[in-house]
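Support reply, case 0932

Customer input (verbatim):
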Amino acid sequence: MITARAAATFEPVGRSVAAARTFVRDTLQGWGFPDIIDDAVVLTSELVTNAVVHAGTAAEVLCTRADGGVCVEVADRYPERELPLQSPAGRLGGVDREGGRGLLLCAALASRWGVEYTSTRKKVWFRLDLPDRPAGTRSAGPALPAAALPLADPRVRVAVIQIDRTGCITFWNEDAHELFGFTADQITGKPLTDLAAWPHTPGTSTGIAEALRLSRWEGSYGIRGADGRVVPVYASHLRVRDAEGAPSTVCLLVRDEERAVLQSPQRAPAADAATAERGTATDPFEVFIGSPAPDDLDGLLQRTVERARDMLDGDSAYLLLATDDETELEVRASTGLPSARQRFARVPVEAGTGRYGSARMPAVHDDLSAVPGAVPLLANTGMRSVVTVPLKVEGRLTGSLGVAAESPRRYGNEEALRLQFAADRIALAVESARLGELERLRRGSLSFLVEASDLLAGTLDRDQTLALMAQMTVPTLATWCAVYTIADQSSDPELSYVLHEDEDRIDGLKNLLSKVPPPDPVNSPGARVWSAPSEAAHSAALRSSLRSLGLADATGHIPGPGTSLATAAAVGGETVVLPLVARNRVIGMLTLGKPSDDHFRQEILELAEDLSRRAALALDNARLYSERTAISQSLQRSLLPPELPHVPGVEVEVIYRAAGEGNEVGGDFYDLFPIRDGAYGFAIGDVCGTGPEAAAVTGLARHALRLLAREGFGGPAVLERLNAAILDEGARSRFLTLLYGELWPQHDGSAVLKVVCAGHPLPLRLRQDGTVEAAAEPQPLLGVMEDLELYEQTVTLEPGDVLLCVTDGVTERREGTRMLGDDGLTDVLTTCTGLTAGAVAARVLRAVERFAAEPASDDMAILAMRVPERQPLRQDD
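Our regenerated output:
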């Protein structure tokens, strides 16, 4: 049964693909289905691309919600596009084929899919089933002796926070004030997302906005306190509604180490309950593992370390997961240790100082103080004894589990065997959950890169490209981002853009980075750690603390103003640098940072590396486009006269509009120049095409006209010699339409013109009585025939008359099948009686622009000359 539907139609243009992705993402997000959004977006992107790009028709997208899943249909109006035939091997075709890749993705990702044809349309549909979510349960634990109870502070503080439907805080109790430092007045009305340090990875976890909309949620995250530091908390969310039906979320939060206050106990499986009834002793770790959620890797790991610590009565525990090549271990969960500082930190597996030499076999360390560096994770934590065991699946190292105590010689072989037995029982479940997380991350990364590529390809503006690079990484990949650019190989890196997820800290971050030497532009793949920002932040924080205490530094002087503690905390974590390499040259660096004591996980760094390659190419394309645009604009300016001369007794106005993208030189040109005393030459022309070839002919024509006219040649002779010069260009020549004339202002207030119209739109003469007539006859255009017989015609403009000369960009202005044409231009000119030359040109331009909604596709030049109504010129003028 369909319970909801949403539909939209997208035009057959490239930008519709991104619009369709946004439509599907917003629809599924509104329905509360974040788990399947990434797959739906990828499939929709492929199918809409087939419709609007390859088929060239509009795409109709329909989303329907039913019990247990979502169905998305994409239809186009091109039924002739058939389903790709299967190969003899039974496949739909290779990934390198132009067609059928959307169907390949449907077969790989969708639960069900199909293609339906009618006489007028083709529809491709796919269904994505929703993952099963285990229902919540209630359970009670047995009575335990006092020694077995979890530890907590003498005064357990439970922060109670209420969030309205918009995600803003409406209630903040006294315990929340004590835990995080903000008073209720300071925090009420602010979004919880401004405070929450959510462990978000694309495609692998629920975001806080989604968690607040669930009926019940429980888990760990961080809250940024008033001092800028992140307080790890364990939270329980409950969705409620008031008497008017308005929903809100009540959040209960405790310190992460006191999670037992809120954490729902896991219900033991029936087999364990039956065993307990028979009086058979069971391993408490077995009872804990019970039935872990198969897709909740972080929750499974956190429960594992807590159970391991309790089982061996330790003070702390940790779990590390191995990389695919088993050469490194990554911290993924810990208890009793500063988890925020250690999470996602990596160490090599091989033996040696700072390495986990015992990761492949069980090991017991009686006293770590006697063997410094044996377990790097426990350095400076106060732990003295530790037992570690490997997690293996089919003989392959997948992780390491350890339990530590503050006193020495707490553990022996018996504890190592118990812990190894537990590790063997949980290893397969951990590996299965890890593979599921990697698969979701892969799908999320694919969706992320598809949208990133689309956004980066949609602009050629350098500043906008820099902003997009930063906005795509913050906060999805990092807490803050800085982009350095390098103008050329001899230039130093320059800080070009800075972004932080908290806008209030951008200025402080920019100030801090401006005082730090930029990273070296090394052309080496991958991310490398850059410690300079963290060291500068810690140094600045120390100076700020000394200044607040009124103490002098080591030199005996009171330090000057430094970075605030909040900025220092925001930059104090891990910072990595990725080179921006385009066309085998380092054009900049992308710097990503975490707040205090945070680390990047490897999957995020690999995703950032993929993004940096795309961003580098987009940034270099923007640079090349800017350079080309600057060159073209400079060339365009050189092909037009620098300024118009003053013609006594004649008003002259010129309007020029180039229709190119800014990097193409237009083919239209105009000129007005003095020939000799009392005589002026004017010209308006249109070279076939645009670009360098057209520019060459334009430059040749404009300069040849001036030179030949000043040598005393008349109009026909000037154009005949110009025609010969164009033909001499051979294959590079372009044909040219040209209106050329000579203007003589008269003492009686009139003006005499001699014009030659070589294939150009005819000039129009507007008389004082409002009549409009052509002021010349058409003659052959230039650059086609060798022998031309051109002649000039004489026109006298009486006071109040206007001569209007335009290029075909004006007369050929189109709206569908309609064209302005000579008649439309004549109608416009008849309304210009009594106007100045400038007003005539402006009215013609306005009429052309209003004739069609779309921007002009051709260059336009408008030259208006008017003889004003005035007294005759005196002889001495």
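We compared this against your earlier run and they match. Two observations from our side: The CA atoms of residues 387 and 656 lie 81 Å apart. The longest helix spans residues 413-457. Please reopen the case if you see a mismatch on your end.
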